[in-house]
Amino acid sequence: MTGGHVMTMYFALTIDFLDCRFHGRRDGGEPEWPPSPLRVFQALVAAAARMNGGALSDGDSAALQWLQAQTAPVIIAPSGLSSVSPYRLSVPNNAMDLPASYWAVGQDPPGDKAPAKQRSMKTVQPTHLLDGSSIHYLWRMHEPVNAEIVGHVKAIAGPAQNINVLGWGIDVVVGNGTILSAEQVEALFGERWLPHAGTGEGGLRVPVRGTLADLQARHAGFLGRLADGSFVPPPPLVVYDKVNYRRDIDPPLREVAAFSLLRTDASGFRPFDTVKWALTVAGMTRHAARRAAQGSGWPEEGINGCILGHGESIGDEKHQPVGSQRLAYLPLPSLEARGDGKAPVVGSVRRVIVTAFDEASGDKINWARRALSGQMLEKEGKAEGDDKEAMALLSLLPGSDKVICAYIRPSSCWATVTPVVLPGYDDPAHYRRRLQIVTNAEEQKRLRDHLHDRIDGLLRKAIRQAYFPEALAKNALIEWRKVGYWRGASLAGRYGVPDHLKRFPRYHVKVRWRDDQQRPVSIGGPVCIGGGRFYGLGLFAPAD
């Protein structure tokens, strides 16, 4: 510590793959990438025990207990690509306990239990490390880093250097453990995999308090499986957690509740013109959500904030922000294949989705699926006191619906179906007015560059406001124009927008997502950015 400043330090456990291939599988037999923290922890335990004659020393045990109690580590790994064509092998199936159970009582195993029969077919689909061989597991060390923690790190460093396999027996590695500063961590090459809140079947296994004891119990059970002359299978490993990991360039996983817009008698689709009616559809869906929330007993504060979005910052006006869990109502124009070559054409709105721009609103989206199906969309009367006109009926759609899939499937190139409303003025310095009177070519170019940079900056700001990672906002390749990129899309200025957004410019936009090395990044939808993103303005579809 110097001058009151505490330096952030990390314990880094590095695994170098000698063959740049990894064969490990997650639950269900799917390829695992990156290798789970639990897999590395198990390798550490095995290496520590091997160095001490088969048992853990007190120092090793204390160090491993400290490590298992830490939060899930950040993982920095090379890009991994699974083999396109898996192949099958006949391999021993690790079932020698079957013939051994007969040998233990002085009998020869029968034909189907003989050692030569203990084989099975195994699918091989290794993950190839594309741009490096080192994987770094980084546990942040709580400041100040005292002598006890340093002792634990030193105790772990020895076994780390004795890890020689990670994954299958053919995945030969070299390990190392050390302490790194934040600056050294920043310089490490590879994709950053970050742990995120929530657990799930698709997550990576991580050690927790009690994992070490469970591993020791399993090992003891394995050693004693034939102790009394009969075969007792060792207990499975059960003390661990599963944590969802996502790269720092991956956007939040956005849940959607999808509905079709039916005629009021449910006899078929009720189409709405995209240019004239999409905004109205969004508004009617929002009011239907408010009615459903009131009927479900939502508190007024929750209705105003989450359902209606009251209090959000709008333009240059200062209000208390609602937060990322505000619901968005996105009318979906159909992308219809027409004409020669069946190129997609923007059609009418026949569906709507309810979503949020973070991943912490899954419970609210699940509520919307239950509560909004069967709700009627009603148009407000022109005069106060007029009866509301029923316009359409919401009917829940599965995620497999073709049009819904067209808006959420992963792609590295997206283009707007409805225009983006910029989150600010694109020409506050009046560059366009000055261009009309400037005759010097160099000055004209300078003004055009300023105007281009201003619009480009606002679009990147819109991407950040929709909770996309900074790496995507910084590296995206962006182009814009007033004319649509899809056949059937109208000029950007013709779409209806809320009154408070009418003063801001609108553009059709195409975005090609890239990482720091300018490699394409495929992301899933929905993608909707800009000042009108809660109403379906700035809605993109994959354009690859």
TrEMBL record:
Identify the NCBIfam families for this entry: cas5_6_GSU0054
Name-wise, this protein is Type I-U CRISPR-associated protein Cas5/Cas6
Q: Which CDD domains match?
A: Csb2_I-U (cd09734)
Q: Which Pfam families match?
A: Cas_GSU0054
Q: Which domain of life is it from?
A: Bacteria
The record ties this protein, via InterPro entries, to:
Cas_GSU0054
What organism does the UniProt record list as the source? Answer: Desulfuromonas versatilis
